[in-house]
Amino acid sequence: MEFGLFVEFPSREGTTQAQIFKDSMELIDAAEESGSEGVWLAEYHFDPGRSVLSAPVTVAGAVAARTKKVKIGLAVHVLPLRNPVQIAEEIATLDHLSDGRLDFGIGRAAFPRIYQGYGFNYAESRDRFEECLEIILKAWTTERFSFSGKFYEYDDLCVVPKPLQKPYPPIRIGATSADTFELVGRMGYPIFINPSRVSTLLDLKPLVAEFHAARKEAGHTGTVGVGLRVPVYVAETKEKAYSEPKESTMFQMQRLINVVTQSIGDAGITAGDDRAAQAERLKAMSYEDVLANTVVYGTPESVVDRLQQLQEELGLTQVIYEVNFGCSVPLEHQIKAVQLINEKVAPKLN
């Protein structure tokens, strides 16, 4: 099972934006030095209290320049917000600058307000996503191409550079809402799961089954990657592992409740994506519930056991671990957790 660090360049009260970038790069350095297989960069927009990482491709270029071994993943790049030809050019360039270490994680984003900020209709997000991806793949795999679609039209374009990895960097598609699991399965790509709106991680099991069923029905064969982004915090004792991230974790749970509640009734939210029910489930969760069902915190031994269970139940091939769930875990604690994960957890599961 592959392990990678999820980094979101989190905003913290009393910290300058410049310091956020420095601290996050220091955490990435620690991940590479301790043997992490990858680092995965988030993407956030118009949320100053959450993150400053609104330009992940630019940041990925900086990460490529300061690292030598780790894979660099986007988790995830929101395709419908940008021109697909520009994305194709930038991602191919980044693939060269990283010497082929890039993983292209892509998605639609879960909240309509991001689309409002860019002047797009969230109800069009799925159609825009599929059209953008089709254009990007044409740009990478054909010398010249033309395209006429619902949103974009191009005539006889030659996009350069082509990616270093052939035919293109590994693609993973993010899924948060239930209806997206079926979409990703139908498209046939590896899936990258954000479980932020389920009550327990094992609630994902029927959704993963839907993903595999849709993939099979669409005629895709062979094995496929299943990645899970999950809060993981490791300390030398159970008491430290539970107490050190507690305040940050519960702050994040409340923030998630607020964001989900604010999106209830927004245009483009499908009937299968019941935000009101999600908010109520989240409100009912105590820290003990979160520890038991939503995060993976503990000693190295207990974390290995829990991740093995998730690997078996969900068929995981990849864990993207988040050591700063809620954005306020001190940097030195984050670094120590990353070191313990790479020294005492990942080797037992690889």
Automatic annotation (TrEMBL):
Residue span(s) of domain Luciferase-like: 1-316
Keywords tagged on the record: Monooxygenase, Oxidoreductase
Signal peptide: none
GO molecular function terms attached to this record: monooxygenase activity; oxidoreductase activity, acting on paired donors, with incorporation or reduction of molecular oxygen
Record's GO cellular component terms: cytosol
One Pfam family hit: Bac_luciferase
PANTHER family given in the database record: BLR5498 PROTEIN, LUCIFERASE-LIKE MONOOXYGENASE
Protein name (Swiss-Prot/TrEMBL): Luciferase-like domain-containing protein
Lineage, highest ranks first: unclassified sequences, metagenomes, ecological metagenomes
